Fold:
Amino acid sequence: MGLELRQQLKLSQQLVMTPQLQQAIKLLQLSRLELVETVQQELMENPFLEEAEPEPSDMSMEEMPVESDTGGSEPEMAVPEKNEEFIRSADWENYLGEFSSVSKQAQSREQEVPEEGLSFEARLASKPSLDGHLTWQMRLSNFTEREISIGEAVIGNLDSGGYLHADCADIQAVVPDAGEEEIEAVIHRIQRLDPVGVAARSPRECLMVQMEVLGETDPILLSLVRDHLEDLEKKRYKPLARKFKIDMEELKHYLEIIQKLDPMPGANFSSTEPHYVSPDVFVYKYGEDFVIVLNEDGLPRLQLNSFFADSLSSTVGKEKDYIQEKMRSAAWLMKSLYQRQRTLYKVVESIVRFQREFFEHGVTRLRPLILKEVAEDISMHESTVSRITTNKYVSTPHGVFELKFFFNSALDLEDGSQVGSESVKALIKKLIGEEDPKHPLSDERIGEILKDMLKVDIARRTVAKYRSAMNILSSSKRKELL
Structure:
């Protein structure tokens, strides 16, 4: 049987991800700050997009009258202009004489480079790094050039907490002719720089160096740090008191001294910067209802550039194709932005309906919720709800929360109803926050209290899982010294 070529027609349906559709899906997932950056980039690249001018107000701030003490109104800038003229005409350098802190030469330099001309970054001082801080101290101390070379190799192997994760062999790989005693001598000197205890190999060594610098010579205190850090961590206080033949008050005094030491001396020089959250939506209580306001601060209001749009009729060929393509792209972006904001509003509105008890009373009243419930409520697909709730934050009367926070699993109650897992976590955190630090609640006891409060049968291991997820220590480690 031979092979042959045939042509045939076939009708089928398939989903095609056009660039416009991909852009719309991408916009759904962006946070507000990322959205502003994306829109600004489109404004730069597409000549058919322009930012709409803000609507002018009836009266500007400069035109508003200011009430005076006499009851009339007069321009607010009248008196300051006279003051500025007097300040400019006065010879302050001769008036202040030797008490002047700024010379005429420095004043002229300041006038040559006005502050308004500087970039925002030029007005900020960079945060010093641990490497730079230690290297600066070495070069100001009586370190030789060879010791500085060894010291730089040591500093280059410090982690974010200031600990040294390298042995002498690793240092010798950078400085081949350095001996072990020479390396240890440099490490010993670096450990006594600021911050004290940096370049230690273990928490024990770090704390011992700090006590040496502080001049602590008490043998019991030194032994507690040198030999019993694990016992202190696990709060085995009574055996330690019996071993050193001291009462609990004396042991408490030693613990207070140890707690003043810094086991992470390099943490203050961490290069990680805090991440600030800008809410995408605000939810306010107004009477008996909740008002939803989208945060569009900084988001440009887009419109089509009429000048370029009018030139479409007078162009032909490739120029016309280019203009049509850019016009379609601009119109689609504006439509996608509108659709994104509309979808975000509808999702938050649905969340407020489902979680009204939370907005009224707080986290302890958060009910179980899944994406499917919100999707069915607003007649959208679950994937759309998932995308629009990613990296979005809402400001509520009880704080700022990620939209994903409102979707949580359920725990069954004895009466057949359900309670949200986040509500249980909030109650566990509240119980631990109100406990007696001398007699902390065990996981089993917390489970019993929750069963009495919520009529929910929660296992001890579930309590331990929720507690660990909130980074709360166990009862044995939360216990304070009597």
